[in-house]
Amino acid sequence: MRNNEPEHIRALTELAGGNAVRTGSDATAHLTDWRGRHKGKAMAVVLPASTEDVARVVRYCRENRIAVFPQGGNTSLCAGSVPPEDDRCCIVLSTDRLRRLREIDAAADVAIVEAGVTLAALHDAAESAGRLFPLRLGSEGTAQIGGLISTNAGGTGAVRYGVMRDLVLGLEAVLPDGSVVSRLGGLRKDNRGYDWKHLMIGGEGSLGIVTAAAVKLFPAVRDSAHAACIVSDPDAAVALLQRLRARFDTAIHAFELVSGGEIDLALRHVEGLRAPFTPTPPWIVMIELGSSDSEAGLDEMLTGFLGRVLSEGMIEDAVIPASGQQVNELWAVRHSLSEANKKAGHGIVFDVAVRISDVPRFIRESTQIVKDHTPLADPVFVCHLGDGNVHLIAMIPREVIPASGILEPLVHVLQDKVHDLAERLGGSFSAEHGIGRKLADEMARRLPPAEMRLMHAIKQALDPHGVFAPDVLLTSKAESEPARMIADDDQTPPR
User: 214 φ, ψ to 5°?
Assistant: First the structure.
């Protein structure tokens, strides 16, 4: 421990409160990522209970060159929510105690919530007011609103409602100098200069710490329909999506394509799941329709639609849940996939976005890449097909995981090949998981120099001392000359 760390811990305890600072074994859970792959070091984990507490802690850290790693629910898949294991002087600033639901305005369709509110808690609050917050994902019981904003999370409902960027009306945030900016009016129209909230959305805590947000609510779903279908291949799934859109348009809330291998992993490793089909077919599509009209008759319409496409040979079979329990059982399989992958072994995870029409080609060619370069791995897929987001997981079973010295080169080879493929298709190597530390070098290598200079210039303008989330999203190794030119004289990074 550095000689001045006890002094810093005492000062932080005074600023944030006696129960707000954790060290030693009490901090361990905040220093390990959800999958247990990345473990970091920090002199303390600080859990402020208000925006004012966050601002005081940030000001102290800036004055004393202490790096700050913001953390929400710690469900990141890109090593973005824990610090590295090096000798820098840093803290983790957790939003876990920022849990107030400040306002639910059903007439304006606005909720104002603090950053530590979990997605599940926001769902419950919106439902109690007769409204809907539409973001859905498997970790909703632990994922927090601030973290979802900072990573611009997507989820299964993006086909209808968009990603987190589309759901945010305003933010409150603490900047790296400790000042607070706030626009929580929940306005649908607001042209008062630059819309700075979009710098924070997807910024992964590198430009500001989100402490509260005004988010959009929607009419509650009063009628819904769900189905699982067997399709012969991803091309058939794309054709099915086109037909479904022509018939149901904005009533489509989710359209997920999952490979049979991924379904089998869930059934083997997560208790209590029920198989939608036995035996598991190579490809399954999961469909959700929704309407605010309680008399829309979606179930009957979807049944008729699936009967027609079945007779045409577009799908091979379909099941329609007959009760709410069966609906929950169907989607429990989908939302258990990340947990299953974690238990099954080492998944080399890719989070790619391409045009919907290019998804089948990406799946075919990336499958071959995995087979050619990592014979130990089985390629499995989870696709938010409705928005072109493909998760390829090169799954290495736990019993055959090679030594880390062998595994790391395999990961790099696969990453180069798979991301090259996405690039050739005009796609993105990061769709909804974020960049974190995992992909910071990859972004610096693949994005055009002008884009990287722009991002570094923004970082330099807001955080000239590199206090917030160093090497998360933007790696200091790739700092551009123009960005350095507009810095102030003191550029000493926090160490």
Answer: -100, 120
